[in-house]
Amino acid sequence: MNTPLRRLSAVVTVLFLALFASATSIQFVQASSLNAHPGNARTVYKQYSRERGPIVAGNTVLASSKPVDDLYKYLRTYPSGPLYAHVTGYYSAVFGSATGVEAAANAYLNGTADQLFYRRISDLLTGRQPKGASVELTVDPAVQQAASEALGNQKGAVVALDPKTGAILAMVSAPTYDPNTLATHSRAKAERAYKRLLADPDRPLDNRAIAGRLYPPGSTFKLITSATALSTGRYNPDTLIPGPAELPLPQTTITLPNDDRQPCGPGGQVTLLNALRISCNTAFGNLGMTLGADALSQQAAKFGFGRTLQVPLTVTPSAFPQNMNKAQVAQASIGQFDVRVTPLQVAMVAAGIANGGVVMQPYLVKRIRSSELDTISETQPTQFSTAVTPEVASQLTTMMESVVQSGTGTNAQISGVRVAGKTGTAQTAKGSPPLAWFTAFAPADDPKIAVAVVVEDGGTYGEAASGGRVAAPIARKVMEAVVGK
Amino acid sequence: MAVVTPVVPPTRRNVELALLLLAIAVAGAAYAIVGLAVEGAVPQDFWLVSGGLALLVLVVHGVLRWRAPYADPVMLPIATVINGLGLVVIHRLDLAHHFNGSTSLATRQLMWSAIGIACAVFVLVAVRDHRALARYTYTAMIVGFGLLLLPLLPGIGREIRGARIWIGLGPLSFQPGEIAKILLALFFAGYLVTARDSLSLVGRRILGLQLPRGRDLGPILVAWLASLGVLVFESDLGTSLLFFGLFVAVLYVATERTSWIVIGMLLFAGGAFAAWTLFSHVQLRVDIWLHPFDPQNVDRAFQPIQGWFGMASGGLLGTGLGQGRPDLVPFAQSDFIVAAIGEELGLTGIFALLVLYGMLVERGLRTAVGVRDGFGKLLAAGLSFSVALQVFVVVGGVTRLIPLTGLTAPFLAYGGSSLVSNWIVVALLLRISDSARRPPESVTAPTTEVPQVVAA
Fold first, then answer.
1. Is the pLDDT of residue A121 over 60?
2. A219, A226, A279, A402: which is the annotated catalytic residue?
């Protein structure tokens, strides 16, 4: 009976070889297609159950991963949720989606970025649980807090930049939301919260600072019109330009009036400096027509109009309209018609002027650190563009200081600090309260912060709102967080 | 050949002891790793659990020294390491499912391991000579077939995940087929060792095959019908394949007639095909096997698909014990424990496991070659081959080589009936191997060093 026993042994060998083959088929041959299978929740869990690195600003933790006892293992939590919601965004395991820095720096936060390759290899070899890198933001919690408090429950946005580096010191969009409500691992709760936010007419999910519906810049655009004029070399702040009570618009029956229906200076003549100081519509409308749409458009582009930015959140490009007739150019010159901007763009104009005409690339991520706190990368400030010459920048600074000293922006004065600024009050639709703008930087002689503030629907002042009344005090509080102490 | 001094073969018990310590060390290390990976610390009961397992198997080792000193030294360590690894994986799944205290499956499995090992000790002590078992040939047949068909009885039969191979008594459920496997191996050995002469007589010769006489086809037809009954009424291809394969293998070893294998395979293929044609529930199982990702099978194939996802995520080296998600696979501790091992220990772990099973089977078959009596040969061959077939059916089912069945991996999977029965199998193989290697009682004049088995 031994011969059949030996053959039986061979049969067993064949059976086992078949098992080796079928196991290899599953775990090796088909492994990648099974891992990529759309129904494979395991791959999703693996991605979402990795310990994400924290998002920090200064010593403040904006987002961290808390170990929990469920399928996803870690719950993303936002300790001061609504305050930084539009910066951090939210990270939802149940939706499998993320926004804000959570999305833009995802590869670092979840540890899959190329720069973390060697760390992953060592994690694999040592069996260490892979952890994501931490992302350190440029946001200054004091500035962010001040901006959020100053805006209060008004709708709008605040962006603050370090003009010398482009570092984003604050980015506030109101109304805001609590990202914790979307990060929850309860699908029902997350869906309820998301639906409620989507249905809210005030659009709390929009990041108005960089990517909401764009705003008409109103009179803050007069900075660009001024820059265009000064850059021609044919104008200086003392150049007298026409500033009548009403500017007839060519080829139309309508006129462009000043708010107070008065001429801006004796004999309808006004210096460029005074025109900016008191925000003279007719002077800038006329100046814009004189300069021409092309010159204005080029100057706007030098400040960043029309360019897509990643900070690393994607910034909607601001727009200066093309193919305008003269009347439209006049309106565009004072920031009406179809000129559309993000608050960040307005802040970049102020920052560029503050920085001697050089606009720095705005950025939100200061540093990436591995889970062992080694620095993996650190953002070096880079020039975004040269918008104006240092001379023009200096002239614009002088003009903007006069706005705050004795013009429309006196509400932005900070005692002992030279503040340069510009108000804006933009009509959005007939009969609805105006947009209130203020953009500024301080100290004017050694700028440490540039800021842009926009408040929708007149804020708490309604119809009576103006940039100087509503937005300038907010800008002042934001700047005080840096220079006022 | 002129040596007249009796050669006493070494007992190799010390080899066994060394291998046992290695097996315990491997299982203990795996237990510690799970604790470190999941809870960040070596389990508090580390010494209690690994010491308990060590104590249990060292008792078996002691009994072997006492009652079966010439027994094969590799089988017990293999059974130990697989049983230990199974405990670790079940414990690991307990942690993932937050089972503890009275809900802990690992604690119950440890208890069943103790019972299984106690049964093995009982077999080794009570059965002094495996030939004595031949007396129970027909008792084994009656009880064996009875157990096999027990799940069909209304009231106590239970269908679990599509297979009716369980009986339930109160809160306990039991797979009687596991015990029937041993009894039927015993019956086949006892019956065929006496019937082999007539069954090996040749009838006509067709296509180079020496076919048996028509009247001798009776036993294989009975076995075939019984296995088809299992396939159709208990709806389990695995159990059916296990019993018919076991019978044909023992029949082949007994008669040395290849024709029996051909007849057996044709009968089984024909029967399975007929069952597939005739019974919709069999068709359904085949459809799940062939088209698991089709929309109509999404729910039914959920378990195997999750198993494959798990194994695929493990890849070649695995995620590491405690670091995968085997808990996402339903019944990972029983039906799909092999997938859990594939996920956390990788293809490497699966290969190691298959090598261990393969070594256990080959050691059993070597015992069959070595033992002198026909009954012992057939019993050892039957028991070893049943382990091989069961591993094939289980791992083949999990890896989609064959349709999924309700059988579980020997020593590894959660389940009392399986553990007890497999420890008895190993005890019987150890007992037979002892007599295979034991020098003859009267050592007056052996003419050869190696006991020569007369080929029939």
1. yes
2. A219
**E strand or H helix that includes residue A406:** helix A390-406
Pairing of strands A246-248, A314-315: unpaired
> In this predicted structure, what is the pLDDT of residue B231?
75
Which of the two residues, A459 and A151, has the higher pLDDT score?
A: A151
Say how far residue A249 (Cα) sits from the centre of its chain.
35
B342-364 residue pLDDT tens: 999 999 999 999 999 999 999 99
Nearest to B382 by CA among B134, B143, B77: B134
Smallest Cα distance from B180 to chain A, Å: 22
Supply the DSSP string of A124-166, one letter for each residue. Answer: HHHTPPPBPPEEEE---HHHHHHHHHHHTTSSEEEEEE-TTT-
Q: Is B411 helix (H, G, I), strand (E, B) or coil?
A: coil
Question: A25 at the B interface (CB within 8 A)?
Answer: yes
CA-wise closest residue to B188 among B254, B237, B130 = B254
* Cα–Cα distance measured from residue A442 to residue A422, given in angstroms and rounded to the nearest whole number: 12
Find the CB nearest A16 among B320, B358, B369. B358
Listing DSSP states for A289-331 in one string gives HHH-HHHHHHHHHHHTTT--EESSSEEPPPB--SS--HHHHHH
pLDDT over threshold 50, residue B456: no
By residue count, chain B amounts to 456
- How far, in Å, CA of B94 to CA of B106, rounded? 7
Alpha-carbon gap, residue A104 to B270, rounded angstroms: 61
Query: How many other CB atoms are there within 10 angstroms of residue A188's CB atom?
Result: 9
A65: which strand partners?
A: A76
Of A18, A20, A37, the CB nearest to B351: A20
Nearest to A2 among B323, B347, B455 (CB): B455
CA B144 from chain center: how many Å?
16
Nearest C-alpha of chain A: how many angstroms from B62? 30
Where do the structural domains in chain B lie, given as residue ranges? 1-126+299-456, 133-278
Domain ranges of chain A: 218-363+381-483
| A219 included as an active-site residue | yes
Distance CA A388, CA A351 (A): 12
Phi, then psi, of B247 in degrees rounded to 5: -65, -50
Structure tokens at A234: 């044919």
B150 Cβ contact partners less than 8 Å away, ≥ 6 residues apart: B156, B157, B167, B176
SS3 A386: strand
Instruction: Name every chain B residue with its beta carbon within 8 A of the beta carbon of A125.
Output: none
* B342:A27 CB<8 A: yes
Cα-based distances in Å from B40 to A415, B44, B322, B443 = 58, 11, 10, 59
CATH architecture of A218-363+381-483: 3-Layer(aba) Sandwich (3.40)
Alpha helices, H only, B98-217: 105-126, 137-149, 176-199
Nearest-angstrom CA–CA distance, A315 and A103? 14
ipTM summary value: 0.91
Q: Which of the two residues, B219 and B87, has the higher pLDDT score? A: B87
CA distance B358 to B348: 15
Cα(B4)–Cα(A285) distance, integer angstroms: 126
